[in-house]
Specification:
This protein has 441 residues and is α/β, with parallel strands linked by helices. It is built from 18 helices and 14 strands. The structure holds uridine-5'-diphosphate-glucuronic acid.
Length: 441
């Protein structure tokens, strides 16, 4: 069954969701107040890099099932379902999430929403927010409408695949909801996934909110666990990469998210564990609050370890030429939010080094946000004259780089592999000194 859907907020999550809903046959209108972003989408151009999504956007617009607006009153035309996808960034000067955009989206929607419509929140929120927003929507609209929570689990770099074939769909519904109407509307929206046997779980609102933050917190904990063990490996001469492979064969542990290196970043994991910790501290859930504090500090310590390794390689950093390979927070995205790679580059610059950053996708964002950082588009030009190269993002072009070709342009053959991504032996055979994380010196 095809629905009339609005998607409010067309950032990373919203734009992907709007495209996918249209691809699944629904009639979709996307609402975005940011003029630049809206103009780009209206021109059929995705405002960020995400593999495969540009093609899907082009197809969805051509099908006539996807259009964009900045005006809430345009979405009233009897939409069955409104997805709220606005951002919930970290508040300045606090660990907590900023939910202001959500409240204003609900206020705007309350003025145009029609009887019988369902609102599904997808943004990541502190537990308790959905119940509050539901009360706000019912009061302000005075209509017979419902609000449910439907967290999103997509990863950047895999957004399309994760949206079309998610591991599960979770829908939180208030116990005060009188009938099965809202659940049926969500089932219709995701009928293709349900037909493909993807689990569809109905919970209460609080559980659905916590499922999302707990999932991200668990992933962050896995990464910090292996990074903490990596420190132990460094001190004992063990190899954290081999160790992760060995423990990963135990299905109860699993091999995913056990890659040690310079730690996690991005627009989600860091801010979500901060907000989770803030909420847990606020309500007195001491156990999870202190666990997440440890996860966060282990994560930041790994960046400091790279600076120590740079000093080990170069001695004094002042005036030394260092090239940082990678700026995006991970490969297959141009997103530099909370990027460990950039944090390392900025810390080296503060320590007096002459830093140059290379990335195949994220350099426009770097130039906009950090105009003081030197950048180069061409990889060999970026390496020219370097006394140390640091692999900070696992882009495949770095793995495909020939160490012999790199040798001919650098000043000194020093390499720190911050992601344990390169073939160390190959680089060593070409005469490079290779420093890894999670390996004995
Ligand atoms: C994360 C979650 O994986 C998604 O399920 C979730 O929907 C999303 O946040 C969100 O809340 O919107 P994403 O931020 O795209 O997705 O990135 P991840 O693939 O989780 O990677 C996060 C960071 O961890 C990256 O910096 C990555 O390099 C690092 N990482 C990942 C490691 O250091 N080691 C690993 O083994 C895996």
């Amino acid at each position: 069954m095809s629905l009339k859907i609005s998607v409010i907020g067309l950032g990373y999550l919203g734009a992907t969701h709007a495209v996918v809903m249209a691809q699944l046959g629904h009639e979709v209108i996307g609402v975005e107040p940011n003029v630049e972003r809206l103009d780009s989408l209206r021109a059929g151009k995705l405002p960020f890099y995400e593999p495969g999504l540009q093609e899907s956007l082009t197809d969805a617009v051509a099908s006539g099932r996807l259009r964009f607006t900045d005006r809430h009153n345009e979405i009233s035309a009897a939409a069955d379902l409104h997805f709220i996808c606005v951002g919930t960034p970290q508040l300045t000067g606090s660990q907590a999430a900023d939910t202001r955009h959500l409240y204003s989206a609900i206020s705007d929607l309350a003025t145009v929403i029609q009887d019988g419509a369902v609102v599904a929140g997808k943004s990541t929120v502190p537990v308790g927010t959905a119940a509050d927003l539901r009360a706000e929507l019912l009061n302000k609209s005075g209509k017979k409408v419902e609000l449910v929570w439907n967290p999103e689990f997509l990863r950047e770099g895999h957004a399309l695949q994760d949206s079309l074939t998610p591991d599960r769909i979770v829908v939180g519904i208030s116990p005060e909801t009188k009938d099965l109407g809202p659940e049926m509307v969500l089932r219709a929206a995701y009928s293709a996934q349900i037909a493909a046997q993807i689990p569809f779980l109905v919970t209460d609102l609080a559980t659905s909110e916590l499922v999302k933050v707990a999932a991200n917190a668990f992933l962050a904990t896995k990464i910090s666990f292996i990074n903490a063990v990596a420190e132990m490996a460094e001190l004992t001469g063990a190899d954290a990469g081999q160790l992760a492979e060995a423990i990963g064969f135990d299905e109860r542990i699993g091999s995913k998210f056990l890659r040690n290196g310079i730690g996690f970043g991005g627009g989600c994991l860091p801010k979500d564990i901060h907000a989770f910790e803030a909420k847990a501290s606020e309500i007195g859930a001491k156990g999870i609050a202190s666990l997440l504090q440890a996860v966060d500090s282990i994560n930041l310590e790994r960046r400091a370890r790279v600076i120590d390794l740079a000093k080990l390689a170069l001695g004094e950093l002042t005036g030394k030429r260092i090239v940082v390979l990678g700026a995006a927070f991970k490969a297959e995205t141009d997103d530099i939010r909370e990027s460990p790679a950039l944090e390392v580059a900025l810390a080296l610059k503060s320590a007096g080094a002459t830093v140059l950053v290379h990335d195949p996708m994220a350099l426009d964002a770097v130039r906009l946000k950090h105009p003081g950082l030197e950048t180069k588009d061409d990889l060999l030009e970026a390496l020219a004259g370097a006394e140390l190269a640091i692999l900070a993002t696992e882009w495949s072009l770095y793995r495909n780089l020939d160490p012999v070709a790199a040798s001919s342009v650098v000043a000194v053959k020093n390499l720190i592999d911050g992601r344990n991504y390169l073939d160390a032996e190959k680089w060593q055979s070409a005469g490079w000194s290779v420093f890894g994380l999670g390996r004995g010196a």
